[in-house]
Design a protein that fits this description.
Blueprint lengths: L19 E7 L13 H18 L4 H5 L2 E12 L8 E11 L3 E10 L5 E13 L4 E2 L4 H14 L19
Antiparallel strand pairs: 1-3, 2-5, 3-4, 4-5, 5-6
């Protein structure tokens, strides 16, 4: 097991040998559309909140951002499987897929917390930036070390089947 505790700035310890379970929420009534289920953008809101939970877990907090650093999402692929309805409890797990000095590749899975049914997934590429210049910059050492420790445990996990998918249509002749 990796010594994640020394990197997480007092966050509760978590088993890092499986996708991290760092974020749960209930579907907000404001997230419901005219079809009676969660809007497309609200799935992304929930996934963004799960990314923020990961960031807090590895030490990205207000002080880190005040020092002029953050992550920006540069690419997102969402797959929708089942509808999420008002008030349903959601559980989002996070698996790290890749990391270098300036980039982080992650995968979130959203499930209905009560039934365990998969509702949606997202694969994301994020870039670490110096916010004062809005340019890519290396992560601070503690954050990078925490992410490396998690990635070392996650590289042994199977890749989700949705990773690397692209949108396309087969053309009929």
């Amino acid at each position: 097991m990796h010594d994640i505790d020394r990197f997480t700035h007092g966050a509760p310890a978590a088993e890092i040998g499986r996708p991290l379970r760092l974020y749960q929420c209930a579907v907000d009534p404001n997230w419901i559309d005219y079809n009676g289920h969660m809007t497309e953008g609200s799935y992304l809101t929930a996934f963004g909140d799960a990314s923020d939970a990961l960031f807090r877990f590895v030490g990205i907090d207000e002080a880190y951002r005040a020092a002029g650093y953050s992550f920006y999402t540069v690419e997102t692929h969402i797959n929708y499987y089942l509808e999420a309805r008002n008030g349903e409890s959601l559980d989002i797990t996070t698996q790290l897929l890749g990391l270098d000095a300036k980039r982080l590749h992650i995968f979130h899975t959203m499930v209905n917390e009560l039934t365990g049914e998969r509702l949606a997934t997202t694969e994301q590429m994020l870039v670490h930036v110096a916010t004062r210049t809005a340019s890519a910059a290396p992560m601070q050492p503690d954050v990078h070390a925490a992410l490396e420790a998690i990635l070392a445990a996650h590289v042994t996990m199977p890749l989700p089947t949705q990773v690397g998918r692209r949108i396309s249509m087969k053309h009929k002749n």
